[in-house]
Amino acid sequence: MSSLFQPAPLLRCTAGLRSRGLVPVAQHFQRHASTSPAGILVATGDSRTSTSAPVSRPAEELPSGLERLPTSSVIRNILLGYFFSKPYLLKPGFAILRRIADSRLQILNPDVNPILRRALRPLLYDQFCAGTNKAEIGRTKDAIKGIGYSGIILCYGKETQFSEGLRNANVSTAGHDSQITQWRDGNLETLGMIGEGDWLGIKLTGAGSNVTAALMQNRAPCKEFLEATDAVCRKAAAQNCRIWIDAEQQALQSTIDLWTIQLMQRWNTNGKALVYNTVQAYLKASRTKLKHQLALAQAGGWALGIKLVRGAYIGTDPRHLLHDTKQDTDDSYNSIVRDLLSGSNLGMREQDFPKNVRLFLAGHNPDSVSAAWNLVQTLNEEGRLKVVPDFGQLQGMGDVLGCTFLQRRESLASEAATGKDIIVPRLYKCLTWGSLHECMQYLFRRAVENSGGVDRMRDGMVAYKAELRRRLFGSRSGA
Question: Does the pLDDT of residue 134 top 80, yes or no?
Fold first, then answer.
């Protein structure tokens, strides 16, 4: 197996590094960020070099990066930004989307109803999803990598919506389960569409009603499900891909965590993390959950893989389990990033922090991503960096942010090539594939998530409109 599962290589040239006092990590998220005119956070702190030159130029001195995107994507971002910023469109639009996503009526199935398909495909599906077949997904993947991303995370969109009836349903533990077979084959097919260095995203409820009922009832997984996950993990390991297990609704999540820990114990050996669990920072218990899993990994000697997100089920998760305010959620996310990168405040001394922790930072908040990006360099310079994270955003979201950091990554790579001791993080895009009907629950969650970031989308629309003007008239400025 290659070194893919190891942290990103450190490009070191330590001769002549100047000494400096250690910066309190808790202050870093304030000290190392300022806001550009486009609303994107850019570095203002010291760089990791042997001179006083900055690690990279401020983002506002660089091109916007949006010139990397196809014109169709720029236009869709403008149209969706307009929709999400208008409450009189948002409320009825959400009601219609939810009805379509939850309905079992054929007339509301966009795979069957051509009118729905023609309405939803060009605006929503093409913005947030990768395609319905291998050829479409291949074109999307090539376009993403052509923009400059390190790779993709590909997820099969099929999932099972739970109902309270499943809580008391009989769970079959023997015999053939065609839904598990379909789920296994779908994930193996997904692996066949990605390459070395890419990721597979897995949703456990996609394995069908028996598995979903077992998750709700806190049961052990059945033998057929274990065999299916082993088949998927074996193929992923053989082609040097990694797997993340998606978080789902809280009625299922405690069992998902338990099953995922068992997968990590089996597959995350020899310091390599094949399987990653998801921590949702909007949950009040997120830090407790993380500390528990760190302790288990340290005691068991296996590698802990963590994907950190804010959370995507705010519309359905019980409100009392979530942080009271958006600021509380921001503080939770930022503090977990800070403490994982530095190995502090997690129930153990920094010097005892496990060396085999792996981290993927998923997010669309410019403040958080910029601060984490800069903190990686600062802690590396101080010799205190415990984890080298990967970064990523969902397809169709955070394009202004993603393109800005692609610019910064290229600048860092150029400086690293001169021998400077700089971390060059990897950037990924997360794509979901499947038919329109299979992806409707996913599309509805993306709509809800975008509605919660209206200010961010408003800033993005300024950048997209400027880019469209540049393409039409050769100038970013205009009325």
Answer: yes
Average pLDDT, the chain: 85
Pairing of β 129-131 and β 41-42: unpaired
- Give the contacts of 373 (CB within 8 A, at least 6 positions apart): 43, 391, 405, 408, 425
Give the type of residue at 457: M
- Please enumerate in sequence order all residues whose Cβ is within 8 A of that of 245, keeping only pairs 6 or more positions apart, or say none: 202, 204, 256, 260, 263, 275, 276, 277, 278
- What Å distances lie between residue 246 and 121, 166, 201, 408, 478, CA to CA? 24, 20, 7, 28, 43
Largest CA distance in the chain: 70
Q: What domains sit in the chain, N to C, each tagged with a CATH number?
A: 10-473 (3.20.20.220)
pLDDT band at 159 (very low <50, low <70, confident <90, very high): confident
- pLDDT at position 453 is 62
Helix runs in 276-392, H state only: 286-300, 326-342, 366-382
pTM over the 0.70 mark: yes
CA-wise closest residue to 241 among 197, 185, 184: 197
Q: How many residues does the chain have?
A: 479
Q: Phi then psi for 464, rounded to 5 degrees? A: -65, -40
Helix (H, G, I), strand (E, B) or coil at 107: helix
* Cα distance between residue 231 and residue 357, in whole Å: 24
Cα–Cα dist 111/104, whole Å: 12
pLDDT (mean) for 439-468: 82
Cα(372)–Cα(278) distance, rounded to whole angstroms? 18
Q: What is the pLDDT of residues 242-257, one digit of tens each?
A: 999 999 999 999 999 9
Identify the band that residue 371 occupies on the pLDDT scale cut at 50, 70 and 90. Answer: very high
